[in-house]
């Protein structure tokens, strides 16, 4: 008499912003041991190359405003492979708990009785700020740091624009490139100063990283120059530019 295989395990992990050096040791070990890797489109080839020889890689194809695998299908794959006794790694760019539908996937695993582990990853905002030699919080400048998305399931996302528009506010706007004109309009409508600094970082931490800096008045034009995934840092300029302004004011 044969017995069914016990359920496998699912690890939901963050691959970081792209550079393999930003991968945590725990996630690297999960890659080495996984039988199935269900990965987002933005996970870099260098990271995926760390998967063990036994691993089957399956791209789940998430892309904002573009072709995407249905979330329900991803959850079906994840549960199905685990029920077949496989060690599954659900690998997402950045951190799985930031705009990564982590809650929905955990709900699916709970409903199926599948054991899981969540491993965090470095998020794009942290990598982008580091590339600017900037701190996301700083005494005397901002006592809080905001994370928000530029679009949701129903289109461009609304936010507390009045609080975001206040002087000294620092925020990271994910998936905001195509919503740049909408974001600019909302911020200006709520009193945002057109000269507030903004920096867009494309492909943060990767060899092809690009940084475009300007002001709120420039935001749509800056966004139009970018092709890849980008995070908008509202209220931050590169440290070199900030230092130059201080020196110029002192002269």
Automatic annotation (TrEMBL):
<keyword id="KW-0949">S-adenosyl-L-methionine</keyword>
<keyword id="KW-0627">Porphyrin biosynthesis</keyword>
<comment type="pathway">
    <text>Porphyrin-containing compound metabolism; siroheme biosynthesis; precorrin-2 from uroporphyrinogen III: step 1/1.</text>
</comment>
<keyword id="KW-0808">Transferase</keyword>
<dbReference type="InterPro" id="IPR050161">
    <property type="entry name" value="Siro_Cobalamin_biosynth"/>
</dbReference>
<dbReference type="InterPro" id="IPR003043">
    <property type="entry name" value="Uropor_MeTrfase_CS"/>
</dbReference>
<feature type="domain" description="Tetrapyrrole methylase">
    <location>
        <begin position="10"/>
        <end position="219"/>
    </location>
</feature>
<dbReference type="InterPro" id="IPR000878">
    <property type="entry name" value="4pyrrol_Mease"/>
</dbReference>
<comment type="similarity">
    <text>Belongs to the precorrin methyltransferase family.</text>
</comment>
<dbReference type="GO" id="GO:0032259">
    <property type="term" value="P:methylation"/>
</dbReference>
<dbReference type="InterPro" id="IPR035996">
    <property type="entry name" value="4pyrrol_Methylase_sf"/>
</dbReference>
<protein>
    <recommendedName>
        <fullName>uroporphyrinogen-III C-methyltransferase</fullName>
        <ecNumber>2.1.1.107</ecNumber>
    </recommendedName>
</protein>
<keyword id="KW-0489">Methyltransferase</keyword>
<dbReference type="InterPro" id="IPR014777">
    <property type="entry name" value="4pyrrole_Mease_sub1"/>
</dbReference>
<dbReference type="GO" id="GO:0019354">
    <property type="term" value="P:siroheme biosynthetic process"/>
</dbReference>
<dbReference type="InterPro" id="IPR006366">
    <property type="entry name" value="CobA/CysG_C"/>
</dbReference>
<dbReference type="GO" id="GO:0004851">
    <property type="term" value="F:uroporphyrin-III C-methyltransferase activity"/>
</dbReference>
<dbReference type="InterPro" id="IPR014776">
    <property type="entry name" value="4pyrrole_Mease_sub2"/>
</dbReference>
<dbReference type="Pfam" id="PF00590">
    <property type="entry name" value="TP_methylase"/>
</dbReference>
